[in-house]
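Case study: Tubulin beta chain.
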Amino acid sequence: MREIVHISTGQCGNQIGAAFWETICGEHGLDFDGAYHGKDDIQNSKLDVYFNHASSDRYVPRAILVDLEPGTVDTIRASKLGNLFRPDNFVNGQSSAGNVWAKGHYTEGAELVEAVMDVIRKETEACDSLQGFQITHSLGGGTGSGMGTLLISRIREEFPDRMMATFSVVPSPKVSDTVIEPYNATLSVHQLVEHSDETFCIDNEALYNICQNTLKMPLPSYEQLNSLVSLVMSGVTTSLRYPGQLNSDLRKLAVNLVPFPRLHFFMVGYAPLTAIGSTSFRSLTVPELTQQMFESKNMMAALDPRNGRYLTVAAFFRGKVSVKEVEDEMHKVQTRNADYFVEWIPNNVQTAVCSVPPKGLDMAATFIANSTSIQGLFKRVGDQFSAMFRRKAFLHWYTSEGMEEIEFTEAESNMNDLVSEYQQYQDASVEEDEDLEFCGEEQPLNDQIE
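Here is what the predicted structure looks like once written out:
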């Protein structure tokens, strides 16, 4: 039944992963021991997408928790979720990547990767029809970025025809956890461009802004930030977990959202986001949700989509929603804001509807956009990278693990190419391509667009 294997790597990845599983269990009527208490058949009809049904009539998440140090994994093991996961699926080392990408990718991580691959093989062998993998990690640290991308490339080698979705926490513009974040992020993006099929970009600063400005929480904790991310992850995966009117899976999502293989970095948004206590003052309607989810303040990456153009958009509506109303609203948005959508992909908004709303709400919407404004994120990281790399600052932490400077140069130029590709498609118009019909079929698009 189209199973998905979930892998959490590093501290950030494990914390987001734990929040995701907590949300999913709540939605499907499972307690934290994996026992099913649901009231409705629809809750357990597609449980096997994310859970294995064990002999003791309990459901066990198809999740693997990986870290190079025992701390975070032990915390999860001791938490209320600890009994949910299979004990063999906790894989951790005893050292740490110390926020250095090279340690995660080449030395410490490479020692642990075989143990993780064994667990992944075990999980995939128990699947009837594996759909793909989803990975939660951050790009700024050492384990999530270095070992996370190592795992992605290893999984890619072993399962070349399966989908690879990553939920990646990218460095924020103002909030920085480590000084060498730009190095780690650039080296990771270099890998993700090649090996991932869809990457959902999330950043802490945008999450802080949502918590403080929209949800009116003065001092949001990481737990609250993570629960925001889990809302989006739950929204993105809704149509995989419930039988809906319009269904979509990871592959259909990629087919609809990725016009060119390298451009698979998405911005995500969620609606309704309203402060606790003010929900009774707003009506939840399809137009209201649509308006909210296109607003930049609902985006989970600190970027304004109005600085670029949408290549493609996918919207997932949940609850008692009329499909026709959703289609009409989406059409209205497209016609009213035609300038913000590239005209050379007609009908570039895809919608999916699921009749089961999230817990505690009547309806909700999740928004995924492949927008050229995401280049702002890569530009920002690239500028910080160049500033440090020009002076060769902090480079010894990487070269001492066996890396060479050429890798940095390659990663930098790959990211710069990505930025210019986004820019090129943002500027491309239908008129410029009129002569395409007379060109040879094999000629790539960028040869004609100058």
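For the exam, be able to explain this: The radius of gyration is 21 Å.
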